[in-house]
Structure formats: C-alpha cells, structure tokens
Design a protein that fits this description.
The chain contains eleven helices and 30 strands. The protein is of the alpha/beta class.
Length: 482
C-alpha cells in the first residue's frame, strides 16, 4: 500500500528528555536537569517544547526520559492537560541515536511511514509559530531524506556542531544537501566558518520517517539496531510508563544521531531554522537571551547590586549582594554558590566533574527532593538525627513501609494527615504529632482534594539513609529507595 502524502499525515514529536545540563549547575542537577526547570518563562523547557508541538499537524508526543525523574516528567505533562502517546523510560541513557531507534520501533510498528520530529527538550525556541512554519515547509523533502534543522551562526561559537550546506534540492526550495558536519571546532575554525558563510549550527532537531531511520541504522549501525530491537521487544508497562529492557538497551553503543547516522548517510539535508533557537548551554547564553537592566545585568531573585555591569545574578535562596563587578555570573541556591567569569561559564562542567569524582551529593540533587507524592527537604542532619520538612500533595499517598534502623516523629504544621501506624489509623491536624517506632509498618496520606499537607519529620537512629525502607504497598510501583 502506498504511503499517504506527507502533507496529509501527522508529525509525531519525539521528545528526548535525557541529559544533565551540567553547564547550568547548580540549578541543573543530575536528578533535576535543566529541561525540567523554568529558565526562560514560567514553564519548564520540557513544557515549552510540548506546547510548541501541540495541535495540528502534530500528534501526541512520545517522550523518552531517564527513569529517575519519570514522576516529575509525568507531573509536568499533567499540568498541561496533554496526554502523551507514551513515556518511555531508560535506566541508563545511551545518547540520541539509540533513543530515536526506540521511538522509531514504537511508532513504526503501526505506521512504518510515520514522520518523527526529534526534539531535545532542553532547548529554547523564542518564535514557536515560525518553528511550526519551518517544519511544515520541510515536509517536501522528508520523503527520501533525513532532515536536520540548521541555525545561521551569529558568532564563532565553539560549543556547537556545524553543518556545511551543499546544493539546493530541486524539489524543495530552501532545502540543501549536507556537504559536511564538523563537531565543535576550535575558535579559529569557527571564525573561518563564519567568514566563509554557508554554515549552520546543528540545532539537534531532526525530521525523518520511522522506516527511513531504521533502514539507515540497519545499514550503518546494525548492532545498535539489534540491541534496540531486543530492548523494545522486552518492554513492559509500569503505570503510565513503558520500561524497555535495560540490559538489552545497555548493549547499544553510546552514540549520537550525528555520529551514528548523519555524518555517514548520503541522504542528509539541512533546512535553515530562523525561530530564535538557543540550546541555553551555559549561564553566559542565558544572559545573552534574557532581558537586561540599564547596566546590562540580568537579575533574578533576592539580589542587591552596586556598580555591577553586564552580569548574570541569580538567587533561589540566599540574599546575593554584589559590588564592583563586571561580566560575572553568580548563582546561589540554598546549598551552593557559584561564581564564574561570564566568558568562562563553559568551564562549570569541570567543577561538576570534580564533584562526581568526590561523590558530592550537590552534583546530583537539590535540597528539595521530588517524589511522586510531593517532596521533602532536609533542614538539618548529623550522625544520629535528621530533620525534614515533608510536603504531601493533595491526594498524595506515601507507600506502606517500615524502617529497621530508625524511628520517626511527625508533627503536622499545616493540613490534615491520615496516618497508618501498625494496626491503628489516626487523623492528625495542625500542632498534633505521632511517633513511629522501629519496625512498625506506617503510611502517611493526604486525603484533602485541593490543599497540601506539610509535616516536620524528625528521624533518630544509628542509620538514616534513604535506602532503609521496606515497602509493602506503593501506588506508584516503586522499589525501596524512591
């Protein structure tokens, strides 16, 4: 049966929600990366990506993310009142080429000619209408080609890949054959590209049919395709998520779409994209796109300045006071302060790598830890006690659990708590408390339909790690440490 004309078919957004955004540390961390943060609007970058691919001609999105932040992703989608086609979970990310293979196997199973629009979720598009228009115009070239969207460079950027355009396609005006890819050139080469013209930044946005992509993998990366096929065949449903077979997926090479396919295929074409694209790859780039005051400063949060120019100053906790600074980035959270020259912002990754080697928890998580039922924040901790503020969403319900090595004291500060403690149940209101002995099955619930519940939890014992949890019932299908 002949494929439908491309202009009569839906485009399937494939949203790649991996990566850690380490250059935007300390705001972006491994368990709550930049795509889940509100950096350029009141919505997260993930939510903005979903919204600009909603409605005609787009189908429901397919989202691929790390299992560690699956509940945050699901909650952010729910806030938009959008039903995704699927949320596919990776236990271990293998870069963009295998991720797209999984999406192609999924969408291609019902329609081999399904058009996949592949989008990183940690990028910014300031003109979504122009983005949609450009994608629609690219459909004329999507029949036999793999399309990459290129951004005309405005500066000799060394942090992006470059695409050299070739001849224009006869049947698709404004679309060009790709002559060459260059990955992150040095400054001299980037300056030469800018001077020569005919080069684009690689936006990381692709348009390809499921059948076309899988056939190129079969030709260029057969071992990867075999591993991804096994991973997809071994999938299982988990609440609203799809879990691929983690062991099979781990056998796939860790490689990007660019290296695996685009640099080797004969059918790559580039479509210029002029829609206010940025990958927000560093604090310097965030300064570039943000609204500035008369002194050229971007100021977010509780910040006091005197004689400060052309700087990015942000506080998500502490008061930040800055005097006599120029071209500086200061970012303060409630547990970390980052200070770096604006032109050295790319080197934040070196700090993050140092923390990884030293196993610093500040690399991976914030003081507020998100859970599917709400969140908690550690207020104080020593060797034998820990104090937490626990917030339970309306209708939220922790697992029925016990601890072998600690006791817990709960005090309700607002809301109403429904508590299971051993064989008894009780309702606690503001200023009321209870005690959970070691080895006692217990559960905390918030039955209110609209109001959150907030308690203070004091733990005491010989060991206070989050892995001292034995679960007996959990509505979110979690293991012992989540």
């Amino acid at each position: 049966m002949a494929a439908k004309p491309f202009n009569d078919r839906a485009i399937h957004p494939v949203l790649l929600c991996g990566g850690t955004g380490s250059r935007l540390w300390p705001l972006s961390r491994a368990l709550h990366p930049k795509q889940l943060l509100s950096l350029a609007s009141d919505r997260s970058l993930l939510q903005e990506t979903i919204l600009r691919t909603s409605g005609t001609p787009f189908a429901a999105p397919t989202i691929i993310c790390n299992e560690e932040y699956r509940f945050i992703v699901a909650e952010q989608i729910r806030e938009l009142s959008i039903d995704p086609k699927s949320i596919i979970l990776e236990r271990e990310g293998r870069n963009t080429a295998p991720a797209l293979a999984i999406a192609a196997l999924d969408l291609g199973s019902s329609d081999p000619d399904a058009l996949l629009l592949v989008l990183p979720t940690d990028h910014l598009i300031q003109n979504p209408e122009k983005f949609s228009t450009t994608v629609a115009a690219a459909l004329a070239a999507a029949n036999d080609s793999i399309i990459v969207f290129g951004v005309e460079p405005s500066r000799p950027e060394t942090g992006y890949g470059y695409i050299r355009r070739g001849k224009q396609l006869e049947l698709a005006p404004g679309t060009f054959h790709v002559d060459a890819f260059t990955e992150k050139p040095d400054l001299a080469t980037a300056q030469e590209f800018l001077s020569d013209g005919g080069y684009y930044w690689n936006s990381g946005v692709f348009l390809v049919s499921a059948k076309r992509y899988l056939s190129e993998l079969d030709r260029l990366q057969p071992a990867m395709l075999v591993a991804c096929q096994k991973a997809w065949d071994g999938r299982r449903s988990d609440l609203d998520f799809v879990r691929i077979d983690a062991d099979a997926f781990a056998q796939s090479e860790h490689i990007s779409i660019d290296f695996a396919v685009m640099e080797r295929t004969q059918d790559a074409v580039v479509v210029p994209l002029d829609a206010g694209w940025s990958d927000i790859g560093s604090w310097a780039e965030l300064w570039e796109i943000a609204e500035k005051d008369q002194a050229g400063n971007v100021v977010v949060g509780d910040v006091i300045t005197h004689d400060v120019k052309n700087s990015y100053l942000r506080s998500d906790g502490l008061v930040v006071a800055a005097v006599g600074l120029t071209d500086i980035v200061i970012v303060a959270t409630d547990d970390v302060v980052l200070v770096v020259p604006r032109d050295g912002a790319q080197d934040v990754t070196k700090i993050v790598e140092s923390m990884r080697k030293n196993q610093r928890k500040e690399r991976t998580q914030h003081t507020i830890v998100r859970r599917p039922w709400g969140s908690y924040k550690v207020l104080e901790e020593s060797g034998t006690f820990k104090v937490k503020r626990v917030s339970v969403n309306a209708g939220g319900k922790l697992s029925l659990q016990l601890h072998h090595r600690r006791v817990e004291h709960w005090v309700v500060v607002s809301g109403e708590a429904f508590v299971t403690r051993g064989e008894e149940t009780l309702t606690l209101r503001q200023n009321e408390s209870t005690f959970i002995p070691t080895g006692t099955k217990h559960r905390l619930e918030n039955h209110h339909e609209t109001e959150p519940l907030h308690i203070i939890e004091v733990q005491t014992g010989e060991y206070l790690g989050e892995d001292d949890i034995v679960r007996f019932d959990d509505v979110y299908g979690r293991g012992s440490a989540n």
